Description:
With 206 residues, the protein is of the alpha/beta class. It has two helices and 17 strands.
Amino acid sequence: MPYHIDKWGPVGGISSMDYWDQRVQVMHDFTKERKDTLLHQLNDFYNLDGLIELHLKKTSSKGGDIYIEDVQIPYNDSIHTYFKNIPITLVAKPRLGYYFIDWEGISTEDTITITLNSNTFINARFEADCNIPDIISEDAILLKDCSPYYFENDLYVETGVTLYCEPGVEINFGNNVHLYVKGNLSFNGSGQDPIVIKGINDQVWK
């Protein structure tokens, strides 16, 4: 900016750093206040009933995604402003390896439509599904939250199916238990978080 001021200040451009900082602050203030100002203007223009705050939280950051009116909420704990007495639809979508429990104290349905007339807290609860079937016929994942895993029977990954595994998972196979893969494995450990595969009590697995 000093170079710009020296060149263009004398002919009507930015005259000083103080002036530049003042104009930038005006834009910061406008951006900060714009949402609330716009919401209040809409409320007054349409003669609505006022605004409320929805405090939305997920019990698991990895467990699933929340949508409000088809817009994904990218936060685990957030507060949103809505109009009173206007229905809104919330959708919970569990990710691979998890299932949706409920909107705590409200409903076990993954999709709900609610009408709020006061500030409200909603907790979306997801939980890890640690059960892996012997025959894996659809994509599945081995989660660190469920580790260690113990398999006493042969494990089959069918054609077109992928078995994923998070870093840090420990997998234990029983004596002479086999892992048959007709589909795909996606195991991505790291030096700090390796995936460990071994036999239970040092038994042989294949």
